[in-house]
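note to self: dont lose this again. the chain is below, predicted strucutre after it. 196 aa total, dont forget to put it in the shared folder this time
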Amino acid sequence: RPNYAFAYFNLSSAYQAQNQLLKAESVLLAATQTIPQATQIHYALAILYQKTNQLEKAQEQYKLVINTSPVKKEDYDLSQISGLEKSTLEYIEMKANSFYNLGLIYGLKGELDSAEESFKNALQVKPNWSEAHSNLGKVYELKSDLPKALEHFEAAVNHSPRKAVYHFNLAMIQLKLQQKEKALKSLQQALTLEPN
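---
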Protein backbone atom coordinates (compact mmCIF):
# COMPACT_ATOMS: atom_id res chain seq x y z
CA ARG A 1 0.00 0.00 0.00
CA PRO A 2 1.46 3.41 -0.92
CA ASN A 3 2.62 5.71 1.86
CA TYR A 4 0.56 8.82 1.08
CA ALA A 5 1.72 10.63 4.22
CA PHE A 6 5.30 10.33 2.99
CA ALA A 7 4.32 11.68 -0.45
CA TYR A 8 2.52 14.68 1.07
CA PHE A 9 5.45 15.30 3.38
CA ASN A 10 7.93 15.28 0.48
CA LEU A 11 5.81 17.62 -1.62
CA SER A 12 5.47 20.01 1.30
CA SER A 13 9.24 19.87 1.88
CA ALA A 14 9.86 20.75 -1.76
CA TYR A 15 7.59 23.79 -1.45
CA GLN A 16 9.32 24.84 1.77
CA ALA A 17 12.71 24.56 0.07
CA GLN A 18 11.41 27.01 -2.56
CA ASN A 19 10.08 29.26 0.24
CA GLN A 20 6.52 28.66 -0.93
CA LEU A 21 5.18 28.30 2.58
CA LEU A 22 1.50 28.76 1.78
CA LYS A 23 1.65 25.92 -0.75
CA ALA A 24 3.54 23.78 1.76
CA GLU A 25 0.86 24.46 4.34
CA SER A 26 -2.00 23.70 1.94
CA VAL A 27 -0.43 20.35 0.99
CA LEU A 28 -0.06 19.38 4.64
CA LEU A 29 -3.60 20.51 5.46
CA ALA A 30 -4.91 18.43 2.55
CA ALA A 31 -2.96 15.49 3.95
CA THR A 32 -4.64 15.86 7.34
CA GLN A 33 -8.01 15.61 5.57
CA THR A 34 -6.93 12.48 3.71
CA ILE A 35 -5.05 10.85 6.61
CA PRO A 36 -6.23 12.54 9.84
CA GLN A 37 -4.22 10.21 12.11
CA ALA A 38 -0.88 10.76 10.32
CA THR A 39 1.32 11.87 13.18
CA GLN A 40 4.16 12.84 10.82
CA ILE A 41 1.90 15.29 8.95
CA HIS A 42 0.78 17.00 12.15
CA TYR A 43 4.41 17.22 13.22
CA ALA A 44 5.45 18.77 9.89
CA LEU A 45 2.59 21.28 10.17
CA ALA A 46 3.57 22.14 13.74
CA ILE A 47 7.15 22.84 12.70
CA LEU A 48 6.00 24.92 9.74
CA TYR A 49 3.69 26.96 11.96
CA GLN A 50 6.40 27.44 14.59
CA LYS A 51 8.88 28.62 11.92
CA THR A 52 6.33 31.15 10.66
CA ASN A 53 5.54 32.32 14.22
CA GLN A 54 1.96 31.01 14.13
CA LEU A 55 2.27 29.76 17.68
CA GLU A 56 -1.40 28.97 18.37
CA LYS A 57 -1.57 26.76 15.28
CA ALA A 58 1.77 25.15 16.13
CA GLN A 59 0.55 24.45 19.64
CA GLU A 60 -2.61 22.78 18.28
CA GLN A 61 -0.59 20.58 15.90
CA TYR A 62 1.93 19.55 18.58
CA LYS A 63 -0.97 18.46 20.78
CA LEU A 64 -2.31 16.39 17.87
CA VAL A 65 1.12 14.76 17.48
CA ILE A 66 1.09 13.81 21.15
CA ASN A 67 -2.46 12.47 20.94
CA THR A 68 -2.10 10.57 17.66
CA SER A 69 1.34 9.09 18.30
CA PRO A 70 1.11 5.31 18.68
CA VAL A 71 3.86 5.21 21.34
CA LYS A 72 2.92 4.83 24.98
CA LYS A 73 4.91 5.60 28.12
CA GLU A 74 6.14 2.02 28.33
CA ASP A 75 7.76 2.51 24.89
CA TYR A 76 9.98 5.32 26.22
CA ASP A 77 12.64 2.97 27.59
CA LEU A 78 15.39 3.74 25.12
CA SER A 79 17.69 1.20 26.78
CA GLN A 80 15.74 -1.29 24.65
CA ILE A 81 16.75 0.61 21.50
CA SER A 82 18.09 -2.40 19.62
CA GLY A 83 14.72 -4.10 19.95
CA LEU A 84 12.67 -1.10 18.84
CA GLU A 85 11.59 -0.62 15.28
CA LYS A 86 12.85 2.46 13.45
CA SER A 87 9.30 3.83 13.17
CA THR A 88 8.84 3.51 16.95
CA LEU A 89 12.03 5.50 17.52
CA GLU A 90 10.80 8.17 15.10
CA TYR A 91 7.48 8.42 16.95
CA ILE A 92 9.30 8.67 20.29
CA GLU A 93 11.48 11.47 18.90
CA MET A 94 8.45 13.32 17.47
CA LYS A 95 6.61 13.03 20.76
CA ALA A 96 9.60 14.26 22.78
CA ASN A 97 10.15 17.17 20.39
CA SER A 98 6.44 18.02 20.49
CA PHE A 99 6.45 18.21 24.29
CA TYR A 100 9.66 20.26 24.18
CA ASN A 101 8.39 22.70 21.53
CA LEU A 102 5.11 23.09 23.41
CA GLY A 103 7.21 24.03 26.43
CA LEU A 104 8.98 26.69 24.38
CA ILE A 105 5.67 28.08 23.09
CA TYR A 106 4.11 28.14 26.56
CA GLY A 107 7.25 29.83 27.86
CA LEU A 108 7.03 32.54 25.20
CA LYS A 109 3.41 33.11 26.18
CA GLY A 110 4.32 33.35 29.88
CA GLU A 111 2.33 30.21 30.73
CA LEU A 112 4.95 28.85 33.11
CA ASP A 113 2.90 26.02 34.64
CA SER A 114 2.13 24.61 31.18
CA ALA A 115 5.75 25.10 30.11
CA GLU A 116 6.91 23.22 33.21
CA GLU A 117 4.55 20.32 32.49
CA SER A 118 5.63 20.15 28.84
CA PHE A 119 9.35 20.10 29.64
CA LYS A 120 8.76 17.45 32.33
CA ASN A 121 6.91 15.35 29.75
CA ALA A 122 9.76 15.77 27.28
CA LEU A 123 12.17 14.57 29.98
CA GLN A 124 9.98 11.54 30.66
CA VAL A 125 10.58 10.55 27.06
CA LYS A 126 14.27 11.60 26.92
CA PRO A 127 15.61 11.89 30.49
CA ASN A 128 19.13 12.95 29.47
CA TRP A 129 18.06 15.82 27.21
CA SER A 130 20.21 18.77 28.28
CA GLU A 131 18.19 21.42 26.46
CA ALA A 132 14.98 20.29 28.14
CA HIS A 133 16.70 20.31 31.55
CA SER A 134 18.07 23.79 30.87
CA ASN A 135 14.70 25.16 29.79
CA LEU A 136 12.94 23.54 32.73
CA GLY A 137 15.59 25.11 34.96
CA LYS A 138 14.80 28.50 33.41
CA VAL A 139 11.07 27.96 34.08
CA TYR A 140 11.80 27.17 37.73
CA GLU A 141 14.04 30.23 37.95
CA LEU A 142 11.20 32.40 36.62
CA LYS A 143 8.86 30.78 39.15
CA SER A 144 11.44 31.58 41.90
CA ASP A 145 11.92 27.90 42.71
CA LEU A 146 15.71 28.17 42.80
CA PRO A 147 16.47 24.72 44.26
CA LYS A 148 14.61 23.03 41.40
CA ALA A 149 16.25 25.40 38.90
CA LEU A 150 19.63 24.41 40.33
CA GLU A 151 18.77 20.71 40.00
CA HIS A 152 17.93 21.04 36.30
CA PHE A 153 20.84 23.34 35.43
CA GLU A 154 23.14 20.80 37.10
CA ALA A 155 21.52 18.02 35.05
CA ALA A 156 22.07 20.04 31.85
CA VAL A 157 25.76 20.45 32.74
CA ASN A 158 26.11 16.76 33.63
CA HIS A 159 24.59 15.61 30.33
CA SER A 160 26.39 18.21 28.17
CA PRO A 161 29.52 19.33 30.02
CA ARG A 162 31.00 20.99 26.89
CA LYS A 163 28.24 23.61 26.54
CA ALA A 164 29.30 26.90 28.06
CA VAL A 165 25.77 28.30 28.32
CA TYR A 166 24.77 25.51 30.72
CA HIS A 167 27.71 26.33 32.99
CA PHE A 168 26.80 30.03 32.81
CA ASN A 169 23.14 29.32 33.72
CA LEU A 170 24.31 27.15 36.60
CA ALA A 171 26.64 29.92 37.81
CA MET A 172 23.81 32.48 37.84
CA ILE A 173 21.58 30.22 39.95
CA GLN A 174 24.45 29.38 42.28
CA LEU A 175 24.99 33.11 42.79
CA LYS A 176 21.31 33.62 43.60
CA LEU A 177 21.61 30.79 46.13
CA GLN A 178 24.74 32.41 47.69
CA GLN A 179 26.95 29.54 46.50
CA LYS A 180 29.70 31.95 45.49
CA GLU A 181 32.63 29.53 45.23
CA LYS A 182 30.63 27.09 43.12
CA ALA A 183 29.36 29.96 40.97
CA LEU A 184 32.92 31.14 40.35
CA LYS A 185 33.98 27.62 39.26
CA SER A 186 30.96 27.31 36.96
CA LEU A 187 31.63 30.71 35.45
CA GLN A 188 35.32 29.87 34.95
CA GLN A 189 34.29 26.64 33.19
CA ALA A 190 31.92 28.59 30.94
CA LEU A 191 34.72 30.99 30.02
CA THR A 192 37.16 28.13 29.43
CA LEU A 193 34.70 26.52 27.02
CA GLU A 194 33.81 29.80 25.31
CA PRO A 195 36.45 32.46 25.95
CA ASN A 196 34.92 35.00 23.56
